[in-house]
Amino acid sequence: MNLTGNTFFVITIVLVVIAVLLPLLLWSRLRGPAVVRGACRLFMVVFAQATAVLMVFVSVNNSNGLYGSWDDLLGTSNHVNNAVDLGPSGTGGRQIAALPKVRQTFEKVDEPGLGNGLRRTYLKGAVSGVEGEVYVWLPPQYDDPAYRDKQFPVVELLAGFPGSSKSWFRAMKVQSRIQPLIESGVVAPFILVSPRTMLLGDKDTGYANVPGTVNADSWLTVDVRKMVADNFRASLAPTSWAIAGYSAGGHGAAKLALAHPDRYSAAVSLSGYSDPAAEKTSITGADPQLRRENDVLNILMAAKTPPRVSLLATGEGADGYLPGLALRDAAKPPTTVEVRPTVGGHITRVWGAELPYAFRWLTREMHLEDGTPGEGGPGGGAGRQDRPEPEGAEVDEPSGAGGGMLE
Length: 407
Prior knowledge:
alpha/beta
């Protein structure tokens, strides 16, 4: 039975009703020795409390997308087939655009609470050795015949930990928040891509490559990006890609963008942190060397040349805002960091409210202000002149013109 399905939630409601009725009907009718009557009454009290807690947990999980499956909840899921050493580039020395094309079959997603227009595929990462589901949402213009020859910008979405690949659509309601802005031309027509990030059961990967354990970095920055470019009208050029995340995903978004300016040109970190040890289950935070290497501030300061990346950091106090200020103080052109304070705590309601501003900011920083695809992609290819394309990137040829094969 699906953990996040309506069926299981209804069952928990039925159990709560039964738990309430049992003492009302049986409390004074119990017969037998006092010990037996006491034990039965204790069982009814415990059963009522347990079912109430279960119902609340399922409701909260369904609303926030914390755990996508029973394996995720129990910490038994493992989506890593192998984790060879891929070197500093995360590609094993290969050019991303030169890798074999990845053709995927997509299914339409029809689940309550996820909104409309979602499609899902199960990707086996040829480079990272990771496999998992990837959700894709296409903007209204994508299927418009007027844009059939145009490429679209992409935002890769990272959930927190714990968090499922559905979180951005269920809890954050990202597509319903930005679709009206896209239709009005305020926000560029972004493709939204949400891959699985819980890869090691109850351990946070730190969005890093750790040989012998996991290649989470390559899964997100190589395999997922390559799959999107091969199946949809999207380029591999960094000017076409941004990455966004909340909480642990905010850490991942900032880290991956600053570490790979050849893959992303902008990032949004909602209540993210710099030090990976802020997440107690992080495998990168537990090891001193990995902690230093994956600290976002250290990555920025250690860069041989300042990365050509725009970063938006939001948060409250030490929860995102102060780390963002530290990054802003350390940034040197062409790196830019905008820090935006929030109030209300570390919750999806606060992060969701930031999305309209965040996507307007992405539109501006990625030079897509006109909101309509032009030559080379949405925004008329603006901003491409001052950003070098990655070596071997296929920029001009629209790929996946059919928008992915649907079952």
